[in-house]
Amino acid sequence: MSRVSKPYEIVERALELSTTDGLVVIADEHSSANLRWAGNALTTNGVTRGRTLTVIATVDGAEGTASGVVSRSAVTADDLEPLVRAAEAAARGAGPAEDAQPLVSRVPSSPDFTDAPAETGSEVFADFAPALGDAFARARSGGRELYGFANHELTSTYLGTSTGLRLRHDQPTGTLELNAKSPDRTRSAWAGRSTRDFKDVDPAAMDAELAQRLRWAERRIDLPAGRYETLLPPTAVADLLIYQLWSSTARDAVEGRTVFSQPGGGTRLGETLAPLPLTLRSDPHAPGLESAPFVIAHSSGDSASVFDNGLPLAPTDWIRDGKLERLTTTRHSAALTGLPVAPAVDNLVLDGGGERSLEEMVAATTGRALLLTCLWYIREVDPATLLLTGLTRDGVYLVEDGQVVGEVNNFRFNESPVDLLSRASEAGRTEKTLPREWGDWFTRAAMPALRIPDFNMSSVSQGV
Asked: Which of 59, 179, 183, 187 qualifies as a cystine partner to 91, CB 3.0-4.6 A?
C-alpha cells in the first residue's frame, strides 16, 4: 500500500477499504495554542497538534440498517485497515439503528477538500500578548492581580462518504478568560470573551471593567434570599439559552417529556413564549460566529444522527418574534414527529430589538436591582418545566436608582429560561459573548442583557 498521510488521503483510503454497504469517514485535524497567567505574569504557553479519525460503517439487513462507530486519535496509514474493520464489525454485531436513513448524497464537494489543514500557533497572539503585558503593568500599579488564560483552537474537518460526499470545514475557536483579584483575595471579578482570531479582544478594556467591579466590591452589603429585579448580562443569558436549546428536541417534546410539550399531547410550536419581540436563531454564516454549514455527527443521540453527516444546514429561527417556531430534529425524528428537518447549528443568537448596553440599562434602573456577573454550576431540576438551579459567581452588585452602590453576597437561583423569557421586561443590545458555564462546549453566541423583574434568588450562597 502506498503511504498516505494527508487528511483527504486518509479519508479516501478508508473509503477504499470498506466492504460494507455504506461508510462515513470524518478526519479532524486539531491544532491549538494557549497562554496562561497568574499574579500579573505569564506562567505557561504551549502549542499542540493532533488528528482524530472517526469511521462509521453501515450494514443493510433484513430487519433494517445497523451502524458501527469507531474513533481513534493519532491515526496513521498503517492504522486505517484495522480501524475500518473494527467499525464494520461493530455494525455487523449491532441491531438495526433506530435513526437509520439513507446516507446523504448529492451535496457539492468543497473546493478545498484536498488542501492541507489550517493550523494555529503562537503567532495568533502576536498583537494580543503585548497588550496583555500592558494590562499586567496597569493592574500592578492599580493594586490588583490578573489571572486567566487564552486558548485558540483550529480544527479542519474532512468528511467523506461512500455516497460521494467530499466536504471540508475549518473551525477557529478562541476563548479568553480574565479574573482580577484584590491583593488580599477578598474581592474577585471575571470577564470573558469569545473570538475567532484574537484581533477583536482588548485586554486593556477588560482590565478597566474588572477594576471598576473591584471598586464596587469595596462596599459589602448582605441581602437575604428572595425575588429581585435582576440584570442578566449576555454571558448569563447565553448559558441559560444554550441549555434551553439543548433541551428543545422535537421527539422529546412530542412524547411529552419537556417544557415544549403541550399538555394533553403535541408540542407548543406556535405558542407565544415572550411578550418582547425576541428571536432566538442559529445561522452557520452569522458574521463572527461562523460554524460548520453541514452536519458533522461523530455519534448519534437525541439531537444528532450519524446518518445525517453532510446534510446542509440553513439559518433557523427557534423562536421568532416571541413565538416558538422550531424544535431540533434529525431526518429520522422529523419523519417520526411530522415536523420539518431542523438540525442543531453550532451557534446561537438572541435578538430583542434593544439598543441599550448593559451599562445604559444599569443607568436606567429605578429603585433597586441586582447586576450579575455570571452563572455557574447550572443543573437541571425539572425537565417538564426546564427548571434550572445554579450559583452566581465573581460579583453580584446592588443597583439603586441607576448607580451601583456595592457588592452583595452570592445566591443560588432557581429559574426556567423559558419562564424567564415570558417575564423579561427589557432586552438590551445583542453582542458577542462567552458563556461561563458552557464555554468548553459552546462558544459561538451573541446575546443581549435581559432585565427580569422578579428573578428568583432561592437561597444565599457562599460561592465566590
From this structure: 59
State the SS3 of 32-51.
EEEEEEECCEEEEEEEEEEE
Nearest of 150, 217, 141 to residue 185 by alpha carbon: 217
Q: Is 133 helix (H, G, I), strand (E, B) or coil?
A: helix
| Percentage of residues of the chain with pLDDT beyond 90 | 94
Q: Is the pLDDT of residue 1 over 60?
A: no
In tens, the pLDDT along 36-47 reads 999 999 999 999
Q: Are 337 and 329 in contact (CB under 8 A)?
A: yes
Query: Comparing C-alpha atoms, which of 247, 250, 245, 248 is closest to residue 341?
Result: 250
Residues 6+ away with beta carbon under 8 Å from 361: 231, 426, 428, 449, 451
Q: Take residue 184 and report the three cell numbers written for it.
A: 488580599
List beta partners, residue 68: 57
Query: Closest Cα to residue 51, out of 77, 84, 74?
Result: 74
Q: Write the Ramachandran bin of 134: left for phi over 0, alpha for psi from -120 to 50, otherwise beta.
A: alpha
* pLDDT at res. 429: 98
3-state secondary structure of 145: strand
Residues 6+ apart with CB under 8 A from 301: none
| CB neighbours of residue 127 within 10 Å | 13
- Contact status, residue 160 vs residue 11, Cβ threshold 8 Å: yes
Q: How many angstroms separate the CA atoms of 441 and 271, rounded?
A: 29
Rounded alpha-carbon distances, angstroms, from residue 265 to 252, 287, 386:
12, 39, 18
- Pairwise CA distance, residues 238 & 194, whole Å: 12
| 107, 44 contact by CB (below 8 A) | no
Examine the pLDDT at 183 and tell me if it is beyond 60: yes
Name the pTM for this structure: 0.96
- Please check whether residue 158 is in contact with residue 7, taking contact to mean a CB–CB distance below 8 angstroms: yes
Cell of 227: 425575588
CB 179 within 8 A of CB 188: yes
